[in-house]
Amino acid sequence: MADKRITLAWTGASGAPYGLRLLECLLAQDYQVFLLISSAARVVLATEHGLKLPSGPLAAQKILADHLQCDSDKLVVCGKEDWFSPVASGSAAPKQMVVCPCSAGSLSSIAHGLSDNLIERAADVVLKERGQLLLVVRETPFSTLHLENMHKLSQMGVTIMPAAPGFYHQPQSIDDLVDFMVARILDHLGAAHTLVPRWGYDQRAREKE
Ligand SMILES: Cc1cc2nc3c(=O)[nH]c(=O)nc-3n(C[C@H](O)[C@H](O)[C@H](O)COP(=O)(O)O)c2cc1C
């Protein structure tokens, strides 16, 4: 089994570019990525990025591997009810999982342990195995229910990372904003990147000039 394995779920919240960029960066860092895509995520991806993915996992995998020009061995797209996928069992699942973007609906299902599709099951597995789960939640405003679900999961050790990019790195483009969020996610995963300058170091270097 490869050392660097991770589960990435795309759900139907706005923010498909975050999910795509995160996938690209993880593959570039030689991770094997088990990618789970909800039906709503496919609608959002087509709406926000113009990329239409079929529901069949193998066909989606081929399109994404071509799109990202990556080694298709490293990218494993799993079907919605692929219960035989490694991510469905604590005996084989990667210890790290990111849901990016994470819809309020998936947040709720995960908080309540529904396990009714592979995304919910994979998150439940990471929780029971006490692995690392990151939810990049996107909604505004948050209802009390959303906040309660986030609070509940946070108390269980889940990292709640709202898709809320900062502006202090003086972004010049949407890509810069996307990279801000993806950089923070990669930091939490312990994955190397050089997407944005690190706070403090860049300013000090400028002052020395
Ligand atoms: C273009 C588009 C944008 C959406 N944006 C959001 C969003 O930002 N946050 C959210 O919670 N739901 C959003 N939704 C609604 C979810 O996709 C919907 O609740 C869906 O049932 C979520 O299912 P999933 O969690 O299984 O992907 C959006 C839907 C569409 C089509």
How many DSSP-defined strands? 6
Main sheet: strand order: 3-2-1-4-5-6
CATH topology: Rossmann fold
Largest sheet: 6 strands, parallel
The CATH superfamily is: Flavin prenyltransferase-like
CATH architecture: 3-Layer(aba) Sandwich
**Low-confidence sequence ranges:** none
Number of domains: 1
Question: How would you characterize this protein structure?
Answer:
This protein has a six-stranded parallel beta sheet, sandwiched between helices. It is of the alpha/beta class. The model has no long low-confidence stretch (mean pLDDT 95). The chain has one domain (5-208): Rossmann fold (3-Layer(aba) Sandwich), CATH 3.40.50. The radius of gyration is 17 Å and the shape is globular. The protein is 44% helix and 15% strand.
How would you summarize the topology of this molecule?
Layout: E1 5-10, H1 16-28, E2 32-37, H2 39-49, H3 57-68, E3 75-78, E4 96-102, H4 104-111, H5 118-128, E5 132-137, H6 144-155, E6 159-160, H7 174-189, H8 201-208
Parallel strand pairs: 1-2, 1-4, 2-3, 4-5, 5-6
Helix pairs in contact: 1-7, 4-6
This protein binds flavin mononucleotide.
List keywords for this structure.
209 residues, alpha/beta, Rossmann fold, 8 helices
